[in-house]
Amino acid sequence: MKADIDLDIGRKTFASGLLPELIAVLRRSRPGDLIAVIGDEEHIGPELETWCRFTGNPLLGTAAEGGRIRFVFRCGAVAVPKDNRPVGSRLWLYTNFDCNLHCDYCCVRSSPTVPRRELGFARVQQIAREAPELGVEEIFVTGGEPFLLEDIGDILACCAAVAPTTVLTNGMLFAGRRAESLAALPRDRIVLQISLDSSTPELHDLHRGRGAWARAREGIVRARAQGFRVRLAATVSTDTEAEQFRQFLDEEKVDAEDRVIRRVALRGSATEGVALSRADLVPEVTITSEGVYWHPVGGQDADFLVTRDIFPLAESFAAVRRAFDSEGEHANKLARIFNCA
Fold first, then answer.
1. Relative orientation angle of helices 45-55 and 18-27, to the nearest 10 degrees
2. Cα 81 to chain centroid, rounded
3. What angle in degrees, to the nearest 10, is found between the helix axes of 212-225 and 201-208?
4. Per-domain residue ranges for the chain?
């Protein structure tokens, strides 16, 4: 993870001069700066994590480099919208990780060349059987690109029978057998959230590949023509990009509830963006083929993994809630909503 400031502490620990160094580096930092602490003493990790939690400067990553240890923390909390959404009311399913695009900011590093790591219809069926008793009010199906899957129609129908379901897609594959899968789905239970990063092709195609914008627009038209509610989702890097997209949505007369504008998160393939830790985020139970994660924005990152055991679903939900409680009173005050949908 790229840092704004590097602090080489050598063999210092909290017992031998590290604390004044940390205070000094914070004084010359700006909110949001990433600070890398590079040292020779691996055992300072737990104490540094405690200090980060206590001071509200979240620890984001730890790595061994050339025989030394590098810790990265962020100066200050992230300002993201508050919400009172109950933990467990939103359930996210990563059906797969392969994708027909290779977006340069993908939070889970999806691309045409990565392994599929499919969740599978059988597991989706079991999730659907167990979810109704756990307070699930919405299901979100994402990837990768879910419409690469042969059985995506069955998966979505299974989810929609349990709760209103949104599928996140780049909108480029609504033809042939996939169009047939769409046609069979209940319009009143399925929402298509289609990625469109800008009002013109330049910015969208810069991140997603030449021609992606035009094909996404075509997918939006096709989905609407079939009677689906379509939500448009933009991933932006700046406030200016966000405002430009809002103006475009106003011109298109897109309802407020059918808009998602989110900042690039410094996860996965992204080399810059908003650095987010677990302490910043109210958990949204996220299930992949590898286990249960804190939030979809970290759906393949070890620091967001809660448990490898998906079933019984009640126990995995309880594990997420226990993890949230264990963040402590201070962390809970910091936790906010980072909307992916």
1. 40
2. 15
3. 110
4. 5-74, 90-334
DSSP letters spanning 215-259: HHHHHHHHHHHTT-EEEEEEEESSHHHHHHHHHHHHHTT--GGGE
* Same fold yes or no, 5-74 and 90-334: no
Contact between residue 113 and residue 142 where contact means Cβ atoms under 8 Å apart: no
Give residue for tokens 């939500």: 231
DSSP assignment of 58-84 equals -EEEEEEETTEEEEEEESS--------
Tell me which residue of 312, 278, 327 sits closest to 134, measured CA to CA: 312
What are the C-alpha distances in Å from 272 to residues 68, 222, 264, 304? 24, 34, 8, 19
Domain 90-334 CATH (choose: 3.40.50.300, 3.20.20.70, 3.30.1340.30, 1.10.3720.10): 3.20.20.70
- The answer to whether 120 touches 174, Cβ cutoff 8 Å, is no
Instruction: Dig out the tokens for 22 from the structure.
Output: 């940390």
Give buried/exposed letters for 199-222 (b at 16+ CB in 10 A, else e).
bebebbbebbbeebbebbeebbeb
Contacts of 328-332 spanning 24+ positions with Cβ under 8 A:
328/53, 330/53, 330/54, 330/56, 331/53, 331/278, 331/279
Q: What are phi and psi of 326, to 5 degrees?
A: -70, -15
CATH assignment, 5-74? 3.30.110.40
114-117-122 Cα angle (round to 5):
155
* Contact between residue 153 and residue 146 where contact means Cβ atoms under 8 Å apart: no
Structure confidence by residue, pLDDT tens digits, 63-121: 998 889 999 999 987 655 556 789 999 999 999 999 999 999 999 999 999 999 999 99
Q: How much is the pTM?
A: 0.83
Q: How far apart are CA 216 and CA 204, in angstroms?
A: 10
Tens digits of residue pLDDT in 124-137: 999 999 999 999 99
